[in-house]
Amino acid sequence: MAENTAEVLTGAAVLAAALGFLVYAGQGSGLAPTSGSYELKASFRSVEGISVGTDVRLAGVKVGTVTSLSLNPQTFFADATILVQDGIVLPDDSAILISSEGLLGGSFVELQPGGSFENFGPGDEIEDTQGAISVVNLLSKFVANGSGGDAGTEQ
């Protein structure tokens, strides 16, 4: 009987630890509901490289997450909704763009504050957007420009 009790207690401890890890992982990934935040919207030409749960950063510091992405059938742009922490007050001429952590790194959403005296409120739309820049397209343009013309000709 004591052996069964020890097994049950060990199993309960393992399940409790697993549940704790799941809760912790959900909060760290941005998938858990965030209290103390407000919603902003933006429309991008391309959201390549980001998804729901992607970090939203201001000056390199995480201040929110992407909560939804959808295609707008009228404009053919990608509509994004982000949650920003309360206390982060953004001027209404701020910009939002999709940035890369490096050539091989992931992408994130970056907020660049403006200088207006008016601020965004919950549910407002950020008009100044810059979508994802395709590294493959940039490299192909660079190669195309480098292979033609007078570059590399001897004088």
Description:
- This protein folds into two domains: 1-32; 35-136.
- It has an eight-stranded mixed sheet, with no helix packed on it.
- Helix content is 26%, strand content 31%.
- The chain is extended and about 75 Å long.
- With 155 residues, it is α/β, with parallel strands linked by helices.
Overview in brief:
With 155 residues, this protein is of the alpha/beta class. Helix content is 26%, strand content 31%. Strands 7-1-4-3-2-6-5-8 form an 8-stranded mixed sheet, with no helix packed on it.
**Overall radius of gyration:** 23 Å
Please give the largest β-sheet.
Answer: 8 strands, mixed
Q: If helices are DSSP runs of H or I spanning 4 or more residues, what is the number of helices?
A: 2
Described by the principal axes of the CA atoms, the overall outline is extended
Oligomer: single chain
Topology:
Layout: H1 2-28, E1 37-44, E2 55-58, E3 61-71, E4 78-85, E5 95-100, E6 107-112, E7 125-126, E8 128-130, H2 135-147
Parallel strand pairs: 1-7, 2-6, 5-8
Antiparallel strand pairs: 1-4, 2-3, 3-4, 5-6
